[in-house]
């Protein structure tokens, strides 16, 4: 949940945050974060993301999805333990944190 990561992927964090804010004010919103090693697996970023979402509504569900290499991106798969640690951080602020792609 930092600007550098969003730029690497061709996006802007402020636009994403504004979209979530606007949508959550008028409808049900769920957020999914693909946890990629070295890109979106920072504990501090997860703390910022979950606290931001909780400031809008602590009931917003956050899905943390495990990354697996495919197509042109070949970083190693996200360790399961990383997802468990990030879930623990997010659950300090949010009521619903769901892990995905856990095999």
List the helices and strands and how they pair.
Elements: H1 3-8, H2 13-26, E1 31-35, H3 43-56, E2 62-66, H4 80-90, E3 97-100
Parallel strand pairs: 1-2, 2-3
Short synopsis of the structure:
The protein has 103 residues and is an alpha/beta fold.
What does this structure look like?
The protein has 103 residues and is α/β, with parallel strands linked by helices. The model has no long low-confidence stretch (mean pLDDT 95). A three-stranded parallel β-sheet has the order 1-2-3, covered by helices on one side. The chain is globular, with a radius of gyration of 13 Å. It starts with a helix and ends with a strand. The chain has one domain (3-100): TIM Barrel, CATH 3.20.20. Helix 3 (43-56) packs parallel to helix 4. The protein has four helices and three strands, in the order ααβαβαβ.
Q: Which labels suit this protein?
A:
about 100 residues, three-stranded parallel sheet, alpha/beta, 4 helices, single chain, TIM Barrel
